[in-house]
Design goal:
Elements: H1 5-18, H2 21-25, E1 28-36, E2 39-42, H3 44-57, E3 62-71, E4 74-82, E5 86-98, E6 101-108, E7 112-113
Parallel strand pairs: 1-6
Antiparallel strand pairs: 1-2, 3-4, 4-5, 5-6, 5-7
Length: about 110
């Protein structure tokens, strides 16, 4: 059975908090796009590098969901993050889910040093 968009997001946050890049990638379509200020990444190889880099730069990071709003497979996620070296209080992503996989995502956040 295909996961709902909110189930995909829940699995995605669990994989992020487990620091498991392989599990993170199972939530994305092979040609998924991740857009951040100044960058547009596409495909599993680019996403592997991006999430691996994030986990490396934010040791022991823990993401916390602040709010989730979903309509027709489009999710607005507000989130926070705590890590050994920085915090984020203003994370906001848009996630588009089709057929149980993330096909597009935008992400914006401001890390603050600890």
């Amino acid at each position: 059975m295909t996961r709902t968009p909110v189930e995909v997001l829940t699995d995605h946050l669990k994989a992020l908090n487990a620091h498991d890049v392989d599990a993170i990638l199972t939530d994305y379509a092979p040609d998924a796009v991740l857009i951040t200020p100044g960058a547009a990444l596409q495909g599993h190889d680019a996403l592997r590098q991006a999430f691996g880099g994030l986990i490396e730069q934010m040791p022991n990071c823990v993401f916390t969901e602040k709010s989730v709003t979903e309509a027709d497979g489009v999710i607005l996620l507000e989130w926070a993050l705590e890590s050994d070296v920085a915090t984020v209080s203003d994370g906001i992503d848009t996630v588009v889910v089709r057929d149980g996989l993330i096909v597009a995502q935008t992400a914006r956040f401001t890390p603050q040093p600890r």
